[in-house]
Input
Amino acid sequence: MDLPINHSNEQLVQAAFNGQSSIFDELYAGNEIIRYKRRRVRKHLMKHLSPASDILELNAGTGEDAIFLARQGHRVHATDISSGMQLKLSEKLILQSLAGSVSQELCSFTALDGLQNKGPFDCIFSNFAGLNCTDKLEQVLLGFDPLLKPGGLVVLVVLPKFCLWESFFVLKGKFKTATRRFFSSKGRSANIDGASFKCWYYSPRFIKRTLKGKFDLLDEEGLCCLVPPSYVEKFPDKYPRIYSWLSKQEERLKSHWPWKYIGDYFIISFRKS
Output
């Protein structure tokens, strides 16, 4: 059963990810850049996460991160808007005997006040731009405080308003790709296997301003600021030496200006005051 959602874009997001849920893992399993992104996000998260934490994961998808965290000794409450994604996660948890470490709830992150499991949690985590699927990010962020314990951690992976790699696509005549983050305050169309919905782009400044007063900034870094975005998926195979060099340079520069602001994503973390 799907969630009763009034917000029309959320209905479109729900339908898109329900449609892709059965093939989602297989579709991206062989993508080296996606594996690279997961390693980077997990390294950032584990650097700040306390042992045996209770984690609220937003837009958990098929549960790749939830399962990883459960294997590290954490307890995860995995939420998502897509019943299809939640079903795939349920199947994985049974196969891997992890149902005791990962709980599930069908819930939009725009409705956190309606969560059945309100924690409080040690960490709120959202990966790979799920939060870009709403124009109500301020509302979402303001809902974090009552769900977190004192000193609780927030780690978010978000699409910024500018991506260096995407800007290069203008040289190939792909103007729509090169400029899709520009002038996007009213949202830009995204497409998954023919299912369209809107997404919005956010600056780190917006998130810091919204959380200011109740949360202290811990860390921020660019993700795929030198390494190409994952949709340039054959790059590591075609140019292995260049890919290796770019990975090393990104590791060195990821937290420095301007690189932390011009990646395909940024990773940002906070500690509750």
Q: What stands out?
A: The first helix runs from residue 8 to 20.
